[in-house]
Amino acid sequence: MKPVILESIRFSSIDVTTRTTWVFAEIFDADGINEVVEITSGNNSNAVAKTIREMVNKIKGLSISGESELQSFLTITTKALETDTVLATAMSALRTSVSCFQARYESISLTEHLGGTVKDKVPLYANINRSLLGDNRSPTHFAKAAEKAVDNGFTTIKCAPFDEVTSDMKLGDIIDASKTGLARVRSIRLSVGNQINILVDCHSRFTLETAPQICAELASLDVKWFEEPVAPETKSLELSKIASVIDLPIAGGESGYGTSFFDNLLDKNSLEIIMPDIKFCGGVSEAIKASLSASQKGKRFSLHNPSGPVSQLLSAHVTAAVSDSMPLEHAVDETDWRADIMSPAEEIRDGFFWIPRGHSIGSVLNQKIIQNKGVQW
Questions:
Q1: Which of 35, 94, 229, 251: disulfide with 273, CB 3.0–4.6 Å?
Q2: What pairs with residue 8 in β-bridges?
Q3: Is 302 helix (H, G, I), strand (E, B) or coil?
Q4: Which pLDDT does position 135 carry in this prediction?
């Protein structure tokens, strides 16, 4: 296979809302071909851009036969990647770009390069939380956002309702502060009926003592999964204890790097559903490895992806390549011009992501939109 020889990198960022900025990196090879990846990571995005630029400069001109060589070329330890989020995000982006280049050199889609077969579409679930950031956090707002997603063809809705809770509260205060969050979920259930699935993300706001109580309340509302009641990265044993006494499956792992991270959680029975994020987990090929390992252990796989259209497209290719993947996350209604950032435009219809045909990811950044609405450097 033709080796990948990296040459340069160009960044783009677009302010989507007052709380969201999508950041993309176009990485160029020695022939001037470029592949785009997403490095959106909140307040860390600028640090990630600086780190990946330094990485590209360090390995510029080297012949890379596969993304597994990057770690040794860059003399980065696995421990560093497991403990440094900025470093892990930069490495994940670089590894993904090499996989995309190889798919293009092979004249096949990224799905095929990852071992899957071409699919027209993959199922999505609607994360309504991004569209509700700010002041629109009443139970009524949650219900209306869920209704809109259902009207647009989604049959599964995810929310993160527990704004008022922090894990350092006293036990009784956590339970009291959870009442508003439970009211938000109840409002969704009443508005969309019993045929729609609801998923709840807890953002690690609970404790070993309080998570089972909250889970029981959510189970009474027919919630389908309980996402990260405590942090998997630091409280895996607590998570396994919670899992042993509740009825709902626990999902999580969005911040972890490497298949071993997920294996550790699965082996402790901390998670039933792993949620790698390709921006953080080591990239698209590492997500595939994690999915295969989960399947062998009798567990399930659903990519985490509350991000922009580049991450959505890359994650769709991974989801398509994993035969038993659960639906992919999609952050709905952050902006009405989202689809136009890509060319051809992103197509999300009837609760599905429609994968563009073509080599590699099948789409590129729309430079007119980037120039009109964003910044390049």
A1: 251
A2: 28
A3: coil
A4: 81
Residue 39 identity: I
Q: How far apart are alpha carbons 213 and 313 in whole angstroms?
A: 37
Q: Measure the CA–CA gap between 96 and 164, rounded to whole angstroms.
A: 37
What one-character-per-residue DSSP string does 362-377 give? Answer: S-EE-HHHHHHHEEE-
User: Among the residues of 44-170, which ranges form H helices?
Assistant: 45-59, 70-73, 78-83, 85-106, 110-113, 139-151
Q: Do the Cβ atoms of 123 and 112 come closer than 8 Å?
A: no
Q: Beta strand 364-365 with 342-343: parallel, antiparallel or unpaired?
A: antiparallel
Identify the burial level of 31 via C-beta atoms within 10 angstroms of its C-beta, where 0-12 means exposed, 13-18 middle and 19 or more buried: exposed
Count Cβ atoms below 10 Å from residue 304 Cβ, excluding itself.
28
Q: Residue 1's closest CA among 64, 70, 59? A: 64
User: What is the mean predicted confidence (pLDDT) over 19-25?
Assistant: 95
CB 329 within 8 A of CB 303: yes
Alpha-helical (H) ranges within the chain are 45-59, 70-73, 78-83, 85-106, 110-113, 139-151, 171-192, 211-220, 236-245, 259-267, 284-296, 309-321, 367-373
Q: Write out pLDDT tens, residues 252-305.
A: 999 999 999 999 999 999 999 999 999 999 999 999 999 999 999 999 999 999
Distance, CA of 356 to CA of 199 (rounded, Å): 28
Q: Are 213 and 175 in contact (CB under 8 A)?
A: yes
Tens digit of each residue's pLDDT (9 = 90 or more) over 85-142: 999 999 999 999 999 999 999 999 999 999 999 999 999 999 999 999 888 899 999 9
Helix (H) or strand (E) holding 153, with range, is none
